[in-house]
């Protein structure tokens, strides 16, 4: 689950059932499967790469 908190920080957490079922199928090498949350002040590069071109420009107008 990927969320943006009120303070602008991003939080990514693997679902517990996913961790149990797929312990070796990570999103990216930098984010191995774990029950611990990942936090970042910037959107994680993997997810940033999924944003289609023009999407940010359309919403910034």
Instruction: Write down the overall mean pLDDT.
Output: 87
The gross shape turns out to be: globular
Main sheet properties: 3 strands, antiparallel
Oligomer: single chain
Rounded Rg: 13 Å
Q: What's the helix-strand series?
A: EEHEHH
Question: How many DSSP E strands?
Answer: 3
Number of domains: 1
How widely separated are the two ends? Answer: 28 Å
Strand content: 5-15%
Category from helices, strands and their pairing: alpha+beta
Query: Helical segment tally?
Result: 3
| Overall helicity | 25-40%
Contiguous low-pLDDT stretches (5 residues minimum) are: none
**Order of adjacent strands in the largest pleated sheet:** 1-2-3
Tell me about this structure.
- It is a single chain.
- The protein is built from three helices and three strands, in the order ββαβαα.
- The chain has one domain (2-60).
- The termini are far apart.
- By secondary structure, it is α+β, with helices and mostly antiparallel strands.
- It has a three-stranded antiparallel β-sheet with strand order 1-2-3, with no helix packed on it.
- It is globular and about 35 Å long.
């Amino acid at each position: 689950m990927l969320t943006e908190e009120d303070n602008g920080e991003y939080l990514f957490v693997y679902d517990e059932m996913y961790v149990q079922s797929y312990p070796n199928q990570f999103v990216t090498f930098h984010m191995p499967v774990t029950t611990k949350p990942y936090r970042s002040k910037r959107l994680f590069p993997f997810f940033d790469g999924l944003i289609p071109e023009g999407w940010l420009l359309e919403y910034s107008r």
